[in-house]
Predict the structure.
Amino acid sequence: MTSQDRLLNSSKTGRSSRTSVSRKQQILQSLAEMLEQSPGARITTAGLAKQVGVSEAALYRHFPSKAKMFDALIEFIEETIFSRVKIIIGDDLTTEDKCGKILFLLLTFSERNPGITRLLTGDPLAGETNRLRERVAQFFDRFETQLRQILRESELREGRKPRIETTVAANLMLAAVEGRISQFVRHNFERSPTETWARQWQVLKLAIFRQA
């Protein structure tokens, strides 16, 4: 089951498929599917209502605007990624392995959720409120902060510094992952973001981390 499936199914219990919450999940699931099925196309509320099988008025009973729908999907990304990042940071792993797992987490999430991943590139947000693009930027800033935190804690606890400055190292790791995600979207989801990543990560590790 992909995360998009969980986005739809996580709130279903008993007859809850007829509840307001379930309808919200159905709308978000349909929006994610449209983002995946129509790369580069602008999503309209009329098209979304048709996909869901309801009227536009029914959409607005659950979400006051399309921006709020995008907000909900971005929130789903944030909760999914950072809840798992917290677990990884708490694991008894080497600094390199923590960074590697966090980077692979984002790549795997993108691969399993191609439609939602378009939001991370800002592609479907053209013409939408600036607040949405700022929220995506904040997501990546927070992700980079987590990488810096891991590197700094390693330095404080173990006296181990990366070969390059902490801020530079964290940004380099994030840039590599962002690049693969952008390629994934640009090639209409045909170029897997995780393909050959293991080999590339080995090269990055040698460039960033000193040998123990």
